[in-house]
């Protein structure tokens, strides 16, 4: 069983994907965390973020794993726990640059497909329904208005102890969405078989109920 969840930044994809996976007993794969971990490593290694070849080689040699899939999931990059580090404002501002590289995406998509080969998964990202799991049983497109997505991202950053300027967060989300939608490969888009849900007026419980109804697993 494969459930794909795509959508723009701050729409609440990872929260709902995690809850859905727990409810269904599937493995949750956060593909955004994989691009974030790669960006974190590139910055740490002083790799120029426009250097496609260097990023391609880095993507190939980097091992990204998720531990504790059913609980408080951790992101491990080459043995190092980067769960918190990959959520920083610097990574937020840089990740779309790395993710726009076709060479990088080729490597990452293959890794993601491998992860979904032998298990039932809920996978969230931008190109899951189109590129990673084109035969997914369900393809959700989760979105919300820009102010609502900015509000959620501000709350998330503040809870992590970051001082944030609300207008800048909104601008950063908008810039990331634009890059993610306009790139030539793996662009974010709705598909003919997408199930589009606007979560602006829904809380996570309501959204979970709606998705479970669609999947046919009544709570
Ligand atoms: O989902 P999240 O906001 O953590 O993703 C971070 C970034 O990683 C996105 O803005 C996008 O540039 C990239 N990404 C991607 N393809 C995916 C998942 C994430 O390009 N499947």
Write a concise keyword list for the protein shown above.
50% helix, Rossmann fold, binds cytidine-5'-monophosphate, 219 residues, 9 helices, alpha/beta, five-stranded parallel beta sheet
Notes on the protein architecture:
- By secondary structure, the chain is α/β, with parallel strands linked by helices.
- The chain has one domain: P-loop containing nucleotide triphosphate hydrolases (Rossmann fold, 3-Layer(aba) Sandwich).
- About 50% of the residues lie in helices and about 15% in strands.
- It contains nine helices and eight strands.
- It has helices at about 15-25, 30-45, 50-60, 90-100, 100-115, 130, 145-160, 165-180, 205-215; strands spanning about 1-5, 25-30, 65, 75, 80, 120-125, 140-145, 195-200.
- Strands 2-6-1-7-8 form a five-stranded parallel beta sheet.
- The longest helix is centred in the C-terminal third of the chain and has 17 residues, at about 165-180.
- It is globular, with a radius of gyration of 16 Å.
- It starts with a strand and ends with a helix.
- The model has no long low-confidence stretch (mean pLDDT about 95).
- The chain binds cytidine-5'-monophosphate (C5P).
- Belongs to the cytidylate kinase family. Type 1 subfamily.
- InterPro entries: Cytidylate_kin (IPR003136), Cytidylate_kinase_dom (IPR011994), P-loop_NTPase (IPR027417).
- Its EC number is 2.7.4.25.
- Keywords: ATP-binding, Cytoplasm, Kinase, Nucleotide-binding, Transferase.
- It catalyses: dCMP + ATP = dCDP + ADP; CMP + ATP = CDP + ADP.
């Amino acid at each position: 069983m494969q459930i794909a969840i795509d959508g723009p930044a701050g729409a609440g994809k990872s929260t709902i994907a995690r809850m859905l996976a727990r409810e269904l007993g599937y493995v949750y794969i956060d593909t955004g965390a994989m691009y974030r971990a790669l960006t974190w490593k590139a910055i740490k290694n002083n790799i120029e973020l426009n250097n496609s070849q260097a990023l391609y080689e880095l993507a190939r040699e980097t091992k990204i794993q998720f531990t504790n899939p059913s609980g408080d999931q951790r992101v491990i990059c080459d043995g190092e726990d980067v769960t918190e580090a990959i959520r920083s404002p610097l990574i937020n501002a840089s990740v779309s640059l790395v993710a726009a590289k076709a060479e990088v995406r080729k490597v990452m998509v293959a890794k993601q497909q491998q992860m979904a080969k032998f298990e039932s998964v809920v996978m969230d990202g931008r190109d899951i329904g189109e590129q990673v799991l084109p035969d997914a049983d369900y393809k959700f497109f989760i979105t919300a208005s820009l102010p609502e997505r900015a509000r959620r991202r501000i709350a998330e950053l503040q809870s992590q102890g970051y001082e944030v300027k609300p207008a800048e967060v909104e601008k950063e989300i908008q810039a990331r969405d634009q890059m993610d939608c306009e790139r030539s490969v793996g662009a974010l888009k709705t598909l003919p078989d997408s199930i589009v849900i606007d979560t602006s007026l829904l809380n996570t419980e309501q959204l979970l109920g709606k998705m479970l109804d669609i999947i046919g697993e009544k709570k």
